[in-house]
Amino acid sequence: MFTDGLANLLIPGLLILLLLFMFWSQRRRQQAISRMQSSLHVGDDICTTSGLFGRILSLDEVVATLEIAPGTTIRFDRRAIATKVDASGRPLDGPEAPRTDSEK
Questions:
Q1: CB distance 52 to 82 below 8 Å
Q2: Tens-place pLDDT, residues 6-46
Q3: pTM for the full predicted model
Q4: SS3 at position 53
Q5: For residue 85, what is the DSSP state?
Q6: Residues 6 or more apart in contact with residue 46 via CB below 8 angstroms
């Protein structure tokens, strides 16, 4: 009798935990994106969400002007910048970033 009641509470409880985990992970992802966006500066090498590599020439609250080749500039929505990269195109932060000796 007691186990039937516990089983009836277990399924909804697991669903609630799953939803809480999903909201928590999405919030962490949004905070990471927000931190990266606020750390952008003119001269940073970046990669956009569409995979285009470039260097930031000018930056305001909405638009980033990128140099994608010598003398070739394009304007992108600032939100389309996915990550900062080094000169070789490797991400500077995130799971794909190269590790330092202290992180290994």
A1: no
A2: 778 888 889 999 999 999 999 999 998 889 888 899 999 99
A3: 0.66
A4: strand
A5: B
A6: 40, 53, 54, 55, 56, 64, 66, 81, 82, 83, 84, 85
Question: Buried (b) or exposed (e) across 43-70, using 16+ Cβ within 10 A?
Answer: ebbbbbeeeeebbbeebeeeebbbeeee
89 token code pair: 């195109």
17 and 9 Cβ atoms separated by less than 8 Å? no
| CA separation for the pair 21, 15 (Å, rounded) | 10
User: Phi and psi at residue 29, in whole multiples of 5°?
Assistant: -60, -45
pLDDT band with cut points at 50, 70 and 90 for residue 104:
very low
